[in-house]
């Protein structure tokens, strides 16, 4: 009995203790399972280190999708209650290019003529063709594809095509062709330079550009089709025009006063494909022999075109490199306030006019992307024996080759300053032929004013004038021989020998003229395979006039062979 009594007492005591524990728990309002956790330090899973990104693992991002913000789950919000705890900002383990914000397949579009000297893409075409532009601001919009239209429009004009069409089509037929594909024909004409008919067409029904392109290209009347590429002038923003006549250091650098004792560019015609020229400026008086407005515009003179013409033929208070040369002023760039730009179709019209109207030299102080139509026109122009000279471009050290300068038929010119250093915004590359002064150049401006400006545009213009001196010295000089003369007589700059900054060196007008055998008594018409205007001889004999003569028209057998060393891909 005693044992049983003790057992009952122990059982009662145990039950009482358990009941007391439950009563306390109930009073505290805490579940039993949670009460167990209160008695030890909580375990919180929070990443406390910067994630290590393995460089061997490719990112899972489609190349055509622009970058966007990603939210990272950093664990429970209780992390904020832990004292003295911060999270590290994510930092990539490899260098990220500043262009990463652009979709990779669009990056080349903004690297051509629309990048500043630091290599940044510009939000819109720079008034000066690069070099001094400001980097693009980040887009306010978010999401996929926001950069696509802007980047595409930098290279070409939106919703426009340049199409080679059947030459037998009348204007009405061409209009009917356009209507069948929801297009509007802006213009079309025959181009004898390349023996083809081209039209400019625009999408007007709102359909996607690519869908229209495929449909239009499949039409039997369309021979070829491409975008209407954009070209921009290659100058820097000028300082406000001011009066005065400071020393022109370019004259000394090029040794022009010495060269002018032998030649002045008389009877040589230079086509200036540019913006409007102030033909009434005293520096250009009686120097513009012909005008052609490829735009069909009514705009007045422009600061760039006037400056380019002045670098070649100025002869009043200033001195150009060929003061007695004659200019064919071809307006191909519009825009009254520095934003001058042109297109594939207009450049084609301009080259065709220059070749058909007696130009011997063509100055092209503009740049753009590689363009199949313009490449074809340049090849045809060079085959006729015209000397083609272009600005290397102002897109800076990181820019790819710009055109037409990078075409092997063209003499590409980079810019130097008064200390013979390369202009910081000047393009580099193995296609650079020679250099010439192009920084702080004093030139004429519209309305009888003057300007101080910089850019490879003006370097090219100076070299075009030097080419005119060589042709006056010897009318039979072929384009390739002229190129080699400039190269061999250039003053070496930078590292010894040819380089990607100055080409063969800085142009030396006096040395080049001295290197050409004098044959000024031989008119152009006397050279093999050439033609001459009927009144050229009469005009040559008239006092105070200079004949505008047809350039040498070389046959296929005669065509100057471009050295492999001059081709961008192999130089």
From TrEMBL:
Q: Name one GO biological process term.
A: proteolysis
Protein name as annotated = Peptidase
What are the record keywords, sorted? Answer: Hydrolase, Protease, Serine protease
* Source organism superkingdom: Bacteria
- Similarity annotation: Belongs to the peptidase S8 family.
Among InterPro entries, the record links this protein to: Peptidase_S8/S53_dom (IPR000209), Peptidase_S8/S53_dom_sf (IPR036852), Peptidase_S8_Asp-AS (IPR023827), Peptidase_S8_His-AS (IPR022398), Peptidase_S8_subtilisin-like (IPR050131), Peptidase_S8_subtilisin-rel (IPR015500)
Question: Under the GO molecular function aspect, what terms does this record hold?
Answer: serine-type endopeptidase activity
Instruction: State one Pfam family annotation.
Output: Peptidase_S8
Q: Tell whether Protease is among the UniProt keywords.
A: yes
Q: Which residues form the active site?
A: 274 (charge relay system), 304 (charge relay system), 457 (charge relay system)
This chain's source organism reads Bradyrhizobium ottawaense
> What PANTHER family would the database entry show?
CEREVISIN-RELATED, PEPTIDASE S8
